[in-house]
Design brief:
The chain is α/β, with parallel strands linked by helices. It contains 17 helices and 13 strands.
Length: 393
């Protein structure tokens, strides 16, 4: 870097992520942008990975980690207050660019107001307009100057709506599992090759743990009754979610189950497992890229579930099924998400080695389709938008 560049005032870029998966995506983007534009500094709402990458967190990511439609109402006054305060601070700081990473209900409204104030805006991770709420396309164009899409079927939707879009692939695909991964990961975790291993992923948010902990523990108990040699891996993103799950174990009397709690090792849990029992969301894609045959479950309040079901455009919700265009992974939602159903489906999948091998091959194809240099492609889009805002790197 030249002396002039070293003495240059930093360029502040606003950024907001709303959950653990967004935190990881944003951190990778930040590293790629800073490699090209060393004077850029990021500020906004950040998780631990973003903070480690140098983001100045004005609010913690946990403030936005609220799921559901009805459930968010109790938090709405605080969320609106945070959004107003953040917008004022970003405008006062004179940011030329804002990047909203997922969290569309929070970010799109913020982006719309910033864009109208003259700030360039990027939204990283398309909302699920291909699954529901396709009417959002009519308003997204008023909020974003460019959409960064993770999946190859998304750009045509935005192009037809006249919204600038860049396909960047999915960063997890670059580290997708190989044929040798399960054996290597089991050696790392000191698990025998013949041991039946089940990965239990109840969710990354505290509200998901509260909703799903009893369900997955009941499922594990049934699996252990059927297979006394079974072992269970449960990864967590935060200390709070791990503590909540441990409390649920003690309350339900399941603390003697052979469960290993992992901190920040979801990828290892899925790569080591014969079968995953996974809460719907990014974790289902992570399971596919880990070549882990799995089943998908999810619970929300009855009212939220009813509202979502009425507006769904697809018969499935899991990302592996969306990518395959078919029910390749069983889904158990709402009332169907019972310990009996999950345990039976997991046992059926464990016993069916032909189906498991077929799924592993299908998931390897997903990885090939999604593989791209996501960081570089996203950084290209960011530097281009900075240039349009008059900022040269």
């Amino acid at each position: 870097m030249s002396d002039a560049a070293a003495d240059a005032a930093p360029v502040l870029v606003g950024i907001v992520a709303g959950e653990a998966s967004g935190d990881a995506l944003a951190a990778e983007l930040m590293h790629a942008v800073r490699a090209r534009c060393p004077d850029v500094r990021f500020v906004g709402i950040a998780g631990p990975r973003m903070e480690a990458a140098g983001c100045e967190a004005w609010f913690p990511l946990e403030k936005l980690a609220v799921r559901g439609l009805v459930e968010v109402l109790a938090h709405l006054p605080e969320l609106l207050r945070i959004r107003r305060q953040l917008r004022r601070r970003l405008l006062a700081a004179g940011v030329p660019l804002f990047i909203g990473v997922d969290a569309p209900d929070f970010n799109l409204g913020l982006e719309r107001r910033l864009k109208h104030a003259g700030v360039r805006t990027i939204h990283f991770v398309s909302p699920s307009v291909w699954a529901w709420r396709q009417d959002r396309l009519a308003t997204i164009g008023g909020s974003v100057d460019r959409m960064l899409a993770l999946f190859p079927f998304e750009p045509p939707l935005y192009e037809r709506a006249g919204i600038p879009v860049t396909y960047v692939g999915h960063p997890m695909a670059q580290q997708a599992a190989t044929h040798a991964t399960r054996r290597e990961t089991r050696e790392l975790l000191k698990l025998k090759a013949a041991t039946p291993v089940f990965a239990l992923l109840p969710g990354s948010r505290l509200s998901e743990i509260e909703m799903h902990a009893g369900l997955v523990l009941g499922t594990a108990a049934r699996l252990f009754n059927a297979r006394s040699d079974a072992r269970f891996l449960v990864p967590f993103i935060t200390r709070a979610t791990r503590d909540a799950f441990e409390s649920a174990m003690h309350r339900s009397g399941h603390q003697r189950l052979p469960i290993t709690l992992l901190y920040g090792h979801a990828e290892d849990a899925l790569r080591a497992a014969d079968v995953g029992i996974v809460a719907s969301g990014t974790a289902s894609l992570e399971a596919a890229l880990a070549r882990c045959p799995h089943i998908i479950f999810y619970r929300v309040s009855a009212l939220t579930g009813w509202l979502v079901k009425r507006r769904l455009l697809l018969p499935y919700v899991g990302l592996p099924n969306v990518l395959a265009g078919d029910f390749v992974v069983p889904e158990f939602l709402q009332r169907d998400a019972t310990a009996r159903n999950l345990a039976q489906a997991a046992l059926n999948l464990f016993d069916d080695t032909v189906t498991r091998r077929r799924l592993e091959a299908l998931f390897a194809g997903f990885a090939a389709d999604l593989a791209a240099d996501t960081g570089a492609l996203a950084a290209d889009a960011v530097t281009a938008e900075l240039a349009r805002a008059g900022v040269a790197c």
